[in-house]
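Work Package 4 report. The design task specified in the project plan requires that, given a folded chain encoded as structure tokens, an amino acid be chosen for each position. We show below one input record used in the internal validation round.
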């Protein structure tokens, strides 16, 4: 089996962003896989989190936040490029891994055993993985996904890549990216990484919403709650992922970044860190409250949204005054 990074699923230590002490252990598939890919390649993914501060309510969902490719290149020398799958998918993946390039590819969670209990053999759900090792002859693959690093056995390998005559309905080819590792002229010191990260932080603070996003979300949520009461629980789960989970997980990453800045010697950020911590935890509690309210057909209190709006204003005001 050809490996890019010499690691194994059994010995892999996931990044602390996915630690059991987190309020939101998972964020979204693209951020989670980039966290572990960057970590697995030997870099600190927290330095690349400034993009989280630009999250906004987009009218029908919160921003599906992602590491910008330009930031990943600036900080880690990782050049992410789209791959055009004009041959069979497995050929492309094998070829790029042989060239030493991890492959970010959309696969079906129905055949990914690390999703056991949620999607594996239960539901066809698109998700992004980062392939680090593959052997077509042995029908095996190792990949970063969600919270860690996993292996694909021959049966699932055959199914996911449609090998040995297996054919599934697929309307369009998956979206695929390759990761070219560009070496910096010299090792990036901790101070240089901090300065690059702070420069990106300033840029993303300039992209932050000009209107408190919790104010606009509260107005829409009042209307959404009325029809959610009439919908099946599956609709609630989709709604929650697009709204409460997105901003809850994102603001916990904001807290993580602010705490990282403090660890690098930046001062006077306690209020911001605590405010983001409260938003992340209030969002988790609000999600449970919403589920109960829908199940019991009871009214939903709006005060938590007001509290989160106040915390967002407090945190962002402090950071913009300090860094802009």
């Amino acid at each position: 089996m050809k490996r890019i990074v010499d690691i194994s699923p059994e010995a892999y230590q996931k990044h602390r962003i996915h630690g059991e002490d987190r309020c939101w252990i998972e964020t979204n598939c693209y951020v989670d896989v980039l966290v572990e890919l960057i970590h697995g390649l030997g870099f600190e993914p927290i330095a690349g989190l400034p993009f989280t501060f630009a999250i906004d309510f987009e009218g029908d969902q919160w921003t599906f936040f992602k590491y910008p490719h330009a930031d990943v290149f600036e900080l880690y020398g990782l050049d992410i490029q789209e791959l055009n799958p004009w041959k069979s998918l497995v050929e492309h993946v094998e070829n790029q891994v042989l060239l030493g390039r991890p492959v970010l590819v959309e696969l079906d969670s129905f055949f990914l055993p690390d999703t056991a209990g949620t999607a594996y053999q239960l539901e066809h759900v698109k998700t992004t993985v980062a392939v680090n090792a593959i052997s077509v002859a042995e029908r095996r693959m190792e990949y970063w996904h969600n919270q860690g690093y996993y292996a694909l056995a021959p049966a699932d390998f055959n199914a996911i890549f449609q090998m040995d005559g297996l054919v599934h309905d697929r309307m369009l080819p998956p979206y695929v990216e390759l990761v070219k590792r560009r070496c910096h002229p010299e090792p990036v010191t901790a101070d240089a990484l901090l300065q690059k990260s702070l420069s990106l932080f300033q840029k993303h603070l300039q992209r932050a919403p000009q209107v408190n996003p919790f104010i606009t979300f509260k107005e829409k949520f009042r209307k959404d709650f009325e029809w959610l009461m009439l919908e099946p629980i599956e609709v609630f789960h989709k709604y929650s992922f697009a709204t409460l989970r997105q901003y809850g997980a994102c603001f916990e990453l904001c807290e993580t970044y602010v705490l990282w800045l403090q660890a690098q010697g930046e001062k006077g950020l306690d209020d911001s860190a605590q405010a983001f911590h409260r938003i992340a935890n209030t969002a988790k509690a609000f999600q449970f409250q919403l589920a109960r309210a829908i199940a019991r057909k009871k009214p939903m209190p709006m005060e938590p949204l007001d509290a989160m709006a106040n915390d967002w204003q407090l945190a962002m005001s402090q950071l913009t005054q300090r860094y802009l």
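The radius of gyration is 21 Å. Validation will be extended to a larger panel in the next phase.
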